[in-house]
TrEMBL record:
A matching Pfam family: Porin_4
Signal peptide: 1-22
Name listed for the protein in its UniProt record: Porin
TM segment ranges: none
Keyword hit for Endoplasmic reticulum: no
Keyword Heme: no
Subcellular location: Cell outer membrane
Topological relation to the membrane, as annotated: Multi-pass membrane protein
Domain Porin: 20-304
Oligomer status and interactors: Homotrimer.
Main location (coarse class): membrane
Organism per entry: Pseudoalteromonas spongiae
Keyword vocabulary terms for this entry: Cell outer membrane, Ion transport, Membrane, Porin, Signal, Transmembrane, Transmembrane beta strand, Transport
Amino acid sequence: MIKKFLLASGIGLVLLPLDAFAETDAQVYGRAHLGLRYVDIDNQESETEVDSYASRFGIKAKHGISDDLSVLTKLEWEVNISEQDGANGSDDNIKSRDQYLGIKSKTFGQILIGRKDTALKKSQNKLDMMNDFVGDIKHLATGENRLGDMVNYQSPKFGQLQFELTYIAEENSKQSDGAGVSAAIGYGDKALKKTPFYVAYAHDEDVAGYNIDRVSAQGKLGDFTINGMYQNSEKVSSGDDGDTFVVSASYKIENYKILVQYQDDETGFGKLKDSGSASSVGVERKLGKQAKAYIWYTQRDLDNSDDEGHLAVTLRYDF
């Protein structure tokens, strides 16, 4: 009921007269991303599925209150536009993504309150070539958290150096032993334009039940980009720990981009709750400023489950 009310409220904002936003820089945006996937799992019959890949709808706004200070907010929901549960879908088709309110200063940085990706999750930047797909690193690696009950601070840039801190209050349902802290420090340009590299170190202390150290790096040479990530994860409740590695690369050829990624995990702490490896290859085809098409294949070799092969063709439209 609450989800429906929030969505209706967001649609109501869209329908307001333009002069209602006269003093605010407001934007309605979204993404529709759908695909057809062929799934082949050992010892099971193969099947095809229609999937929605983190399709979303949101509103973000920024209002200047002085030359150096602005108030900003973002309300975003994931919309699963492919699943059908019953005659008219399900409440599960709408899920909360980033939703926060905060202030931003060119001098002192940015502070946000609400729900958002942790500093550790953001530190890997865009090295995940299979983001939102079956090969997404979150399926094997833990730490890819978007958490509520949080306060997030991001510093201004000191040359190419910037740090970020996320505090997760103990009332968050994923916090079992008090509050958690996620911190990250990065050097370089995340867009790989002002500098051809970006490196970061991040640490989670008792965040969603884990302590994590993560190092990630990206480098660009012409149209070629190569990325790497290493992390050690410890489960707070048991003391069990292990390592995760990710290597990925992309190569741009006119309107095409070739994507490759390999991940190896020994922890079993990720979304799959199983250890193993995932190898992915794909091609991204740019169809204009707002649309892209993909074809990709991911092979999962899991330690405690049947091996899986996934082949998909997808279409994405951003607005």
